[in-house]
Write a structure and sequence with these properties.
The chain has about 270 residues and is an alpha/beta fold. It has helices at about 20-30, 60-75, 125-130, 140, 160-170, 185-195, and strands at about 10-15, 35-40, 80, 85-90, 95-100, 105-115, 115-120, 150-155, 175, 200, 205-210, 215-220, 225, 240, 265-270. The protein starts with 8 loop residues before the first strand and ends in a 6-residue tail after the last strand. Strands 3-2-1-6-5-4 form a 6-stranded mixed sheet, with helices on one face. It has 2 domains: about 5-115, FAD/NAD(P)-binding domain, CATH 3.50.50; about 130-250, 3-Layer(bba) Sandwich (FAD/NAD(P)-binding domain), CATH 3.50.50.60. The radius of gyration is 22 Å and the shape is elongated. It binds flavin-adenine dinucleotide. Flavin-adenine dinucleotide binds next to α1.
């Protein structure tokens, strides 16, 4: 009998070992499909310390979840895990031939792309340093943690307005930093006004702060906006992880109630009421 883990012919090659790829491998392993799961180890939420909104695992460490999933897969002998990237894939007869980063090739009847997304942050200095630790992208994942706090949302379109309204519904005091004249629909503008969301049209030049403690935004005319523990939520900016490349969209940001408009280095900015 062919050793199921040593043959380089599979029913399915899975590219990507995040939640999608791991769950697919689990289900395929349970029905004795020969599976190769290749993972390059750069999950989208690598910067995040806790997963939220996941049934029975709310607040768990995402790395721990991936580790448990891998341990459980070890019970299924037809599943092979490799910590390597799928570099290329091509049609081969009825199936595919894939080449792994180390040069190994494998054949499969099916190829499952579970390569996730890569977040492309907007060109605001300092944003990347706070990503996942004060700068976030999703009110469903992180909104609860910043409920009732002053927050800022980056973006000047309806997506950003939608995020701002979602955060306002969580009791946040929201400033929407549009970075110029916003392009809201009339409905979005009405909604923002009704929710008391203030709109700031100045460019956001930079963001700094101490993760979990405070975040400071530098605005174009020399204003700064300083607040406490902050979450900064990109309204978008996701691209397929592989192949790379795609346009960034807009983003959101949220600081704490103890925060205030700061006077550094020159004057504190007070956004007008909408
Ligand atoms: C900061 C942050 C916090 C988040 N918090 C939450 C939360 O609290 N709750 C929630 O539900 N969601 C959250 N998310 C979203 C969550 O991360 C994604 O929904 C989830 O990771 C998607 O799983 P996935 O398997 O599709 O992709 P990923 O988890 O990104 O996994 C894709 C995997 O494929 C690998 N890969 C890519 N290309 C290749 C290749 N060519 N060959 C081999 N492997 C490859 C990558 O290295 C990676 O390991 C968060 C996201 C971010 C950015």
């Amino acid at each position: 009998m062919v050793n199921e883990k040593e043959s380089n012919v599979y029913d399915v090659v899975i590219a990507g070992g995040g939640p999608a790829g791991l769950n697919a491998a689990l289900m395929l392993g349970r029905v004795r499909r020969r599976v190769l799961l290749a993972d390059s180890g750069q999950p989208r939420n690598a910067a995040s310390a806790a997963v939220h909104g996941l049934f029975s695992r709310d607040g768990d460490d995402p790395a721990r979840l991936r580790r448990i999933a891998r341990e459980q897969l070890a019970a299924y002998p037809s599943v092979r895990l490799l910590d390597t990237a799928v570099e290329s894939a091509a049609r081969a007869g009825d199936g595919f031939e894939v080449t792994l980063a180390g040069g190994e090739t494998a054949r499969a009847r099916r190829l499952l792309l579970a390569t996730g997304l890569a977040d492309e942050l907007p060109a605001v200095e300092g944003l990347a340093r706070l990503w996942g630790r004060g700068v976030y992208h999703c009110p469903y994942c992180h909104g609860w943690e910043v409920r009732d706090q002053p927050v800022a949302v980056l973006g000047g379109d309806d997506t950003a307005a939608h995020l701002a309204l979602g955060l306002a519904r969580l009791g946040c005091d929201v400033v929407l930093c549009a970075g110029g004249p916003p392009a809201f629909s009339e409905a979005a503008r009405d909604g923002l006004r009704a929710a008391g969301v203030r709109v700031c049209e100045d460019l956001v030049l930079g963001v700094d702060g101490v993760p979990g403690r405070h975040v400071r935004l530098s605005l174009s005319p020399g204003w700064t906006l300083e607040r406490g523990p902050c979450s900064c939520i990109p309204a978008s900016g996701s691209a397929p992880a592989s192949p790379p490349g795609s346009a960034a969209r807009s983003w959101t940001m949220a600081p704490s109630r103890s925060a205030s408009w700061a006077r550094a280095p020159s004057r504190a900015y007070t956004p007008p009421a909408t």
